[in-house]
Amino acid sequence: MATRINKYLSEVGYCSRRVADRLIEEGKVAINGKIPEMGYKVEEGDEIKVDGQRIEKSKKHKNIYLAFNKPVGIVCTTDRRVEHDNIIDFIKYPTRIFPIGRLDKPSEGLIFLTNDGDIVNKILRARNNHEKEYIVGVNRPINRDFIQSMSNGVKILDTITKNCFVKQLGAKKFKIILTQGLNRQVRRMCESLGYRVKSLKRIRIMNIKLDVPTGKYREFTKEELIELNGLLKNSSKTFE
Q1: pLDDT confidence of 119, banded at 50, 70, 90?
Q2: How far apart are alpha carbons 50 and 98 in whole angstroms?
Q3: Which residues are identified as catalytic?
Q4: 80: left (phi over 0), alpha (psi -120 to 50) or beta
Q5: Any idea which of 6-10, 116-120, 162-166, 232-236 has the lowest mean pLDDT?
Q6: What pLDDT score was predicted for residue 222?
Q7: What domains are defined for the chain?
Q8: Cβ contacts of residue 221 below 8 Å, gap of 6+?
Q9: Helix, strand and coil in the chain, % to nearest 5
């Protein structure tokens, strides 16, 4: 049965569909020696190459789901040629995996890594309202107005952020739970209110909490995966 090339690359664990689309646009994907158009469908027997490397579906393909505590200074990219301090080289996992979403270089905490391309878009799509929880430290004391403003939405990137849960934890520290994934969202929200983020740590994504030391990872438990799949049951994907 014919399969869209972006779906094929995610199913074999090469990358997410979003990354696959970018690779296709950049002309890095070849099917039977030719550069395909977006949406092209591959069939059994087709030769697929990415950057000259032949990609094949393994008969022993097993889905991998890792919870990793990213240290400050590590970059969430799979492109090892662009960034020396990348997450893939740091983890050195024996099979190909890629991060779900990202934490910027100065941030730390929980990030998922997987070879299951289908789960990526379900977790990342903002319309699916999946929670991500952070502990944030800022450069000066916060007050009730700051908490209220952050909770009710802040104007960044030509939009107003969604209402969210915010709780003060200390003079310069707060907890925030987001269901969006705008670029550098927490940092931009704080900046718009005149604050600078000094530390940012993600401690939870959906039902999975950060419980490993910095720089370490673990596999999802069977119970966590069952619960996660339940939460994702009605989630939409970016592409079919």
Answers
A1: confident
A2: 16
A3: 104
A4: alpha
A5: 232-236
A6: 93
A7: 3-55 (3.10.290.10), 65-122+211-231 (3.30.70.580), 131-205 (3.30.70.1560)
A8: none
A9: 25, 30, 45
- pLDDT at position 126 is 52
Task: Name every residue whose Cβ is closer than 8 Å to that of residue 29 and which is 6 or more positions away in sequence.
Answer: 5, 9, 20, 23, 35, 36, 48, 49, 50
Q: In whole angstroms, what is the distance from residue 135 CA to residue 174 CA?
A: 6
- Interacting residues of 78 by C-beta distance below 8 A, sequence separation 6+: 15, 19, 86, 87, 88, 98, 99
CA–CA separation, 67 and 86 (whole Å): 16
Per-residue pLDDT at 78 exceeds 80 = no
pTM of the model: 0.77
Among 133, 115, 128, residue whose Cα is nearest residue 233: 128
User: What is the predicted pLDDT for the residue at 128?
Assistant: 58
Q: Which residue has the higher pLDDT, 121 or 108?
A: 108
Here the tokens at position 215 are 């720089």
Which residues are CB-neighbours of 90 under 8 A, at least 6 positions away?
Answer: 71, 74, 215
Q: Which helix (H) or strand (E) holds 185?
A: helix 185-192
Q: Tokens standing for 163? A: 């209402």
